[in-house]
Design brief:
- By secondary structure, the chain is mainly β.
- The protein has one domain.
- Helices cover 0% and strands 58% of the residues.
- The protein has no helices and 11 strands.
- It has strands at 6-11, 14-19, 28-46, 50-51, 54-55, 62-80, 85-86, 88-94, 98-105, 119-123, 127-130.
- The strands form 2 sheets. Strands 1, 2, 3, 6, 7, 8, 9, 10 and 11 form a 9-stranded mixed beta sheet that branches. A two-stranded antiparallel ribbon has the order 4-5.
- A hairpin with a 4-residue loop joins strand 6 and strand 7.
- The protein is globular and about 35 Å long.
- The protein starts with 5 loop residues before the first strand and ends in a 7-residue tail after the last strand.
Length: 137
Protein backbone atom coordinates (compact mmCIF):
# COMPACT_ATOMS: atom_id res chain seq x y z
CA UNK A 1 0.00 0.00 0.00
CA UNK A 2 1.44 3.36 -1.05
CA UNK A 3 1.16 5.91 1.75
CA UNK A 4 3.14 8.72 0.08
CA UNK A 5 1.64 12.20 0.08
CA UNK A 6 2.17 15.05 -2.36
CA UNK A 7 3.46 18.55 -1.70
CA UNK A 8 1.16 20.93 -3.60
CA UNK A 9 1.98 24.56 -4.42
CA UNK A 10 -0.65 26.76 -6.07
CA UNK A 11 0.19 30.24 -7.31
CA UNK A 12 -2.52 32.46 -8.81
CA UNK A 13 -4.35 29.35 -9.95
CA UNK A 14 -7.36 27.20 -9.14
CA UNK A 15 -7.64 23.56 -8.11
CA UNK A 16 -11.09 22.03 -8.50
CA UNK A 17 -11.72 18.94 -6.40
CA UNK A 18 -14.70 16.99 -7.70
CA UNK A 19 -16.47 14.71 -5.21
CA UNK A 20 -16.67 11.07 -6.27
CA UNK A 21 -20.31 10.33 -7.03
CA UNK A 22 -19.88 6.81 -8.34
CA UNK A 23 -21.46 5.50 -5.15
CA UNK A 24 -24.07 7.31 -3.09
CA UNK A 25 -23.09 8.51 0.39
CA UNK A 26 -19.37 8.17 -0.37
CA UNK A 27 -17.27 11.20 0.46
CA UNK A 28 -14.01 12.04 -1.29
CA UNK A 29 -10.92 12.17 0.94
CA UNK A 30 -7.63 13.68 -0.22
CA UNK A 31 -4.41 13.59 1.81
CA UNK A 32 -1.47 15.93 1.18
CA UNK A 33 1.87 16.41 2.89
CA UNK A 34 1.89 20.20 2.48
CA UNK A 35 -0.32 22.76 0.75
CA UNK A 36 1.23 26.15 -0.09
CA UNK A 37 -1.02 28.78 -1.66
CA UNK A 38 -0.29 32.18 -3.16
CA UNK A 39 -3.45 33.90 -4.37
CA UNK A 40 -4.93 30.53 -5.30
CA UNK A 41 -8.39 28.96 -5.10
CA UNK A 42 -9.31 25.48 -3.92
CA UNK A 43 -12.82 24.64 -5.11
CA UNK A 44 -14.62 21.67 -3.59
CA UNK A 45 -17.67 20.63 -5.58
CA UNK A 46 -19.94 17.83 -6.65
CA UNK A 47 -19.66 16.67 -10.21
CA UNK A 48 -22.17 18.72 -12.22
CA UNK A 49 -23.44 15.77 -14.27
CA UNK A 50 -25.18 12.47 -13.71
CA UNK A 51 -22.95 9.41 -13.83
CA UNK A 52 -25.10 6.35 -14.64
CA UNK A 53 -28.17 6.64 -12.41
CA UNK A 54 -26.42 8.47 -9.56
CA UNK A 55 -26.93 12.22 -9.46
CA UNK A 56 -24.59 14.56 -7.63
CA UNK A 57 -26.18 15.65 -4.39
CA UNK A 58 -25.44 17.11 -1.00
CA UNK A 59 -24.57 13.59 0.16
CA UNK A 60 -21.15 13.74 -1.51
CA UNK A 61 -18.63 15.96 0.24
CA UNK A 62 -14.86 16.37 0.17
CA UNK A 63 -12.38 16.25 3.06
CA UNK A 64 -8.98 17.74 2.25
CA UNK A 65 -6.34 16.78 4.82
CA UNK A 66 -2.84 18.26 4.78
CA UNK A 67 0.03 18.22 7.26
CA UNK A 68 0.69 21.95 6.79
CA UNK A 69 -1.03 24.90 5.13
CA UNK A 70 0.68 28.18 4.28
CA UNK A 71 0.19 31.35 2.26
CA UNK A 72 -3.03 33.00 1.20
CA UNK A 73 -6.01 32.07 -0.90
CA UNK A 74 -9.63 31.03 -1.05
CA UNK A 75 -11.48 27.82 -0.27
CA UNK A 76 -14.91 27.28 -1.85
CA UNK A 77 -16.87 24.77 0.21
CA UNK A 78 -20.34 23.25 0.30
CA UNK A 79 -22.52 22.64 3.33
CA UNK A 80 -25.75 20.89 4.21
CA UNK A 81 -26.40 22.63 7.53
CA UNK A 82 -29.71 20.86 8.13
CA UNK A 83 -28.00 17.45 8.03
CA UNK A 84 -24.68 18.50 9.65
CA UNK A 85 -22.55 17.68 6.59
CA UNK A 86 -19.97 19.71 4.70
CA UNK A 87 -16.74 19.82 2.80
CA UNK A 88 -13.91 20.01 5.32
CA UNK A 89 -10.34 21.26 5.51
CA UNK A 90 -8.24 19.42 8.09
CA UNK A 91 -4.71 20.69 8.77
CA UNK A 92 -3.08 18.18 11.11
CA UNK A 93 -0.04 20.38 11.79
CA UNK A 94 0.69 24.10 11.53
CA UNK A 95 -1.37 26.52 9.45
CA UNK A 96 -0.03 29.99 8.63
CA UNK A 97 -1.39 32.75 6.42
CA UNK A 98 -4.71 34.34 5.52
CA UNK A 99 -7.55 32.45 3.87
CA UNK A 100 -11.15 33.16 2.90
CA UNK A 101 -13.85 30.51 3.05
CA UNK A 102 -16.75 30.88 0.59
CA UNK A 103 -19.72 28.68 1.48
CA UNK A 104 -22.64 27.45 -0.61
CA UNK A 105 -25.38 25.70 1.38
CA UNK A 106 -28.13 23.37 0.18
CA UNK A 107 -30.69 25.85 1.49
CA UNK A 108 -32.41 23.49 3.94
CA UNK A 109 -32.96 25.16 7.31
CA UNK A 110 -30.85 23.96 10.24
CA UNK A 111 -32.16 23.75 13.78
CA UNK A 112 -31.65 26.97 15.73
CA UNK A 113 -28.24 27.16 17.37
CA UNK A 114 -26.65 24.43 15.24
CA UNK A 115 -23.02 24.83 14.23
CA UNK A 116 -20.76 23.07 11.77
CA UNK A 117 -16.95 23.03 11.76
CA UNK A 118 -15.44 23.54 8.30
CA UNK A 119 -11.74 23.98 9.19
CA UNK A 120 -9.58 22.38 11.88
CA UNK A 121 -5.87 22.94 12.47
CA UNK A 122 -3.21 21.49 14.74
CA UNK A 123 -1.91 24.99 15.52
CA UNK A 124 -0.34 28.05 13.95
CA UNK A 125 -1.44 31.62 13.38
CA UNK A 126 -3.56 31.19 10.25
CA UNK A 127 -6.58 33.44 9.92
CA UNK A 128 -9.74 32.15 8.23
CA UNK A 129 -12.43 34.62 7.17
CA UNK A 130 -15.87 34.11 5.68
CA UNK A 131 -15.84 35.48 2.14
CA UNK A 132 -18.84 37.08 0.51
CA UNK A 133 -19.98 36.06 -2.94
CA UNK A 134 -21.29 38.70 -5.28
CA UNK A 135 -23.37 35.93 -6.81
CA UNK A 136 -23.78 32.26 -5.98
CA UNK A 137 -20.43 30.69 -5.04
Amino acid sequence: MDTSKADVSLENSAWTIIADITTTNQNTRLNLANLAMSGANVIMMAEPVTRSSVTASAENFTTLTTNTLSGNGNFYMRTDMANHQSDQLNVTGQATGDFKIFVTDTGASPAAGDSLTLVTTGGGDAAFYVGQCRRRC
